[in-house]
Here is the input.
Amino acid sequence: MMRFKRYSANLLFFILSLLFLGFFFLGERFIPIQMNLSSMPMLNSMFVVFLGLFLESIPFLFLGAIASSFIHLFISEELIQRMIPKKPIAALFWSIVAALIVPVCECAIIPVVRRLIIKGVPIHAGVVLLVTAPILNIIVFGSTYYAFQKNPEIIYGRVIICILTAIIVGAFVYIFFRKDIIKEEANKHKHNHTQHDHFSSLSHKLTHLINHITDEFFMVGKYFIIGAVFASVFQVCVDRTILAELGNSQIQGTVLMMGIAYILSLCSSADAFVAASFSHSFLPGSILGFLVFGPMLDLKNTLIMMSCFKWRFVFIYILLVFLVVLSLCLLAGVWISRGGL
Here is the structure.
């Protein structure tokens, strides 16, 4: 029965992949015409915005699922553990480097970090991985570059603020959290992204890779669709004067965008396209708040963190990341407004 469900899921994934390719090349030309929404201009506008977000993001969602699955199955925790030294400062910076080869999903990194800390990786180094892993990878950089080609301050600002946040939060955790932060019951915690046992043959690994890509794609895809629908409704239905008031306020706009990112829980591989849809209404600092805070903290990974780490650490971590990202994005917004890059 389980094997039948798996084959059905893979077949559905293959069919949807073909449909997505058709949408990508032909969707903007044929779909609006066939649906004939001209008599409902507001619904038509929402559909056009949603379709644009959807078609632009699909390649990066697919590449992100492939990259995450490959790393998940072929990069061991032992390799990451060997990369991170025991010395505090060296561990902090090497954790940033290690973030380049760990799973890109903000949910997947939490159980990985928990296991690394249990195995002896310094707590502050593990926290740096939590902060940086969902952002510092080539897929996320590529999607951000594609979505903000004319705004280099957003592209590089996302990376710079991520690294600065990791250094500040990592240093704070090193000073104030020397004791164990792992929940006792966390050892029983299971997650879809948990590292699997090594397989005896290449064919088994390839089969499992395809299965994992399917699971990963559908998991991140459903959240992105929800986010894209929200963004399209928000852009079309919310009064432009309200958007102008919120968007022109550096503090209110940034807090609002960070809150939206937290609730939507988008995958960092494609959240740049949703952020780009807000770029005409919000200042660059607010857009950076969405792009940096969302991958570090969202609704679904908060629940996973609470199941893995002690509540006191989770509370302080959330408050600290929020304050640091907000402060850095406000500073970046002021800098960009004065000329920036």
